[in-house]
Amino acid sequence: MTRPVDSGVILIARLALAVLFLWGGVMKLLGYAGFVSYLQAQGVPFAQIGAPVATAIEAIGGLLLVVGFLIRPLALVMAVYTIATAIYGHDFWNVTNAAAQHDMVIHFWKNVGIAGGFLLLFVTGAGRISIDAARTPRRHLR
């Protein structure tokens, strides 16, 4: 059981994560052809399939984070997705330019940190300020 302050902090964490993914999903939608080209240039296998999947995960996942719906399974999906994007999108080990490599290292480990946040969200759940909490039957104390 979480305290009210814990649920407020969990809500803030969900919103902070959601902003990143909602923004990313919208940008992918607005520049969809460029996103597909980027994936192909990165050597991502099945870029034509990966692009709509990535866009949906970011946009829909971001919305689900905001409202707190299906947070535990969503957190696992988002953690795996974030690690996959670190590996395919921030592959610093393939970059030869020192400045670009430094930038890629930062983004790679940022993604690993975000995945860690999703794993914590998996453990804590959505908190009381969520659809998940509203859907959970309450035990009445007598």
From TrEMBL:
Keyword field contains Transferase: no
Transmembrane spans: 7-26, 46-67, 74-93, 113-131
Location (main, coarse): membrane
Subcellular location: Cell membrane
Pfam families per UniProt: DoxX
Membrane-topology descriptor: Multi-pass membrane protein
GO cellular component, one term: plasma membrane
Top-rank taxon: Bacteria
Keywords: Cell membrane, Membrane, Transmembrane, Transmembrane helix
Family statement drawn from the similarity comment of this UniProt entry: Belongs to the DoxX family.
Protein name: DoxX family protein
Organism for this UniProt entry: Trinickia fusca
